[in-house]
Specification:
Largest sheet: 5 strands, antiparallel
Helix content: 40-55%
Shape: elongated
Structural class: alpha+beta
Number of domains: 2
CATH architecture of the largest domain: 2-Layer Sandwich
Radius of gyration: 22 Å
């Protein structure tokens, strides 16, 4: 059993359970209004205990960080009772130390292989980057610079997409829907924090954003999580205006903590035309015969 004093400061499992319990709908779970005042929204502890077929005391001990001994059947019962999505369920298992064993991840940021850098350089028409799972930008091509920002002009410690999303005003202004994009960033970062709780660089990033941005503090406390998935992002670019791109993510087999990200648009779409103009403009290949696509806000 974990020491109570030590667990109170790092009780991610209990915090996550409380956050999901608070967001659960008692009526949807089958509990009618019994006339008792609910001090907090969501399920009561005794209601969650009933749904998961465990004791109320067990729920209390889990939420207070006084135990981490949770069997897989109980975790599945808790996940079902709280209607957790697949990413949330995986995160719950990670926090409870029952996730499948995985190689220990290094806290440092590994180098990008020369062949992968060469691949980036050949992707002239596709903005692409190599990211660490903590969203550090490790390598990028010219097209990514044209679309997003000049990463080479930033100090290495500031080349992080989540940090830029919250703390860099021009980068933040690129998003057509910044709150949505920012909340997705927080969910990705929370998922990675569950996987690598002892990563000092990630802890420093969370600490800096918590101090400097009130929205980050609020959303971080919500314990929303999200793993990799198909994404579409819409930007409002200062050169070409509104542009919507598919975000493709590819794992790097030789470096499990890295992945390649590429931004594309369907070949017959206005965004594809806008991206092509942007890349020609960045390369200095735009002349009076190359019309700027209609800017869309």
């Amino acid at each position: 059993m974990a020491d109570r004093g030590a667990s109170s400061a790092h009780n991610e499992l209990g915090d996550f359970l409380r956050a999901r319990r608070a967001e659960s709908d008692p009526h949807q779970a089958g509990f009618p209004d019994d006339g008792r005042l609910r001090r907090v929204p969501g399920l009561r502890r005794e209601e969650l205990a009933q749904l998961a077929h465990v004791s109320v005391d067990y729920i209390v001990r889990l939420e207070q960080g006084r135990t981490r001994r949770v069997s897989r059947p109980v975790l599945n019962a808790l996940a079902d009772a709280l209607h957790l999505a697949s990413d949330e369920r995986a995160y719950l298992f990670t926090l409870a130390d029952v996730a499948p064993a995985a190689p220990e991840r290094q806290s440092g940021r590994s180098d990008v292989a020369p062949r992968l850098r060469q691949l980036l350089e050949t992707m002239h028409d596709v903005p692409a980057m190599v990211l660490h799972r903590g969203m550090d930008v490790l390598a990028w091509n010219r097209a990514a610079t044209a679309l997003l920002t000049d990463f080479g002009a930033l100090p290495p410690a500031e080349r992080n997409l989540i940090r830029l999303t919250f703390l860099d005003a021009p980068f933040r202004a690129l998003y057509a829907d910044w709150p949505r994009a920012a909340r997705e960033c927080v969910a990705v970062l929370r998922m990675e924090a569950g996987r690598t709780p002892h990563d000092p660089a990630l802890a420093a990033l969370v600490g800096e954003l918590s101090v400097r941005d009130p929205d980050f503090r609020t959303w971080w406390a919500g314990h929303q999580v999200r793993g990799p998935r198909q994404l579409t992002k819409t930007y409002v670019h200062p050169v070409v205006g509104r542009i919507t791109l598919d975000v493709q993510q590819f794992t790097v087999d030789t470096h499990p903590d890295q992945f390649l990200v590429a931004y594309t648009a369907p070949s017959d779409s206005p965004s594809h035309e806008a991206l092509g103009f942007l890349l020609r403009w960045a390369a200095g290949r735009v002349d009076e015969h190359d019309d700027l696509p209609a800017r869309r806000r």
